[in-house]
Amino acid sequence: LPLMNYLEIIGTLIGLLYLYLEYKASAWLWIAGIIMPAVYIAVYYHAGLYADLGISIYYILASVYGLICWLRQSNSSGKHPSNNSNNSNSGISPTPRSLYLPLTVIGIALALLIGYILDIATDSTVPWADGATTALSIMAMWMLARKYTEQWLVWIAADVASAWLYWYKDLWLTGGLYMIYAIIAWFGYKKWKSI
Questions:
Q1: Which of 10, 70, 135, 167 could serve as a FRET partner for 126 with CA atoms 20 to 30 Å apart?
Q2: Rounded average pLDDT over 34-60
């Protein structure tokens, strides 16, 4: 198999681990969230998915931010951050309604801006779709760092759209992974909503 196939397989396996850790609300998800996008940077570059490459860099930085937020929250509640049974679900809450409009406006603006940049500055064959999935992912990652339950719904939209995009670009394993993400995200949403 070519190197890109091996990297795609490794990224897929780490992605599944990441999703499991997110479902469990384990702070370890952020470590997987640093490793997985680092692997995918090469895959996306090779496939010409430049916004996804850029979002991978964002994911690495956002994972560091998310880890800091979750550890701070654990420390402020007086619980040891490595003791997942005591603290893994603390701080999970619904997205404040006051954020719905700003998040929607920011998401649309980001999608248009990223799509426009990709359209004029790269050879991307799917600039607007790439921009839209990237914008959704940026919003979902921020919501995850804040432990908002509805982050799962944003991920579902991003995952389904991303799966289509990856299949279009012949990244079959990655597209399949994102459909699995979308299915498990639904169960994650139900689990977090019940907390």
A1: 10
A2: 87
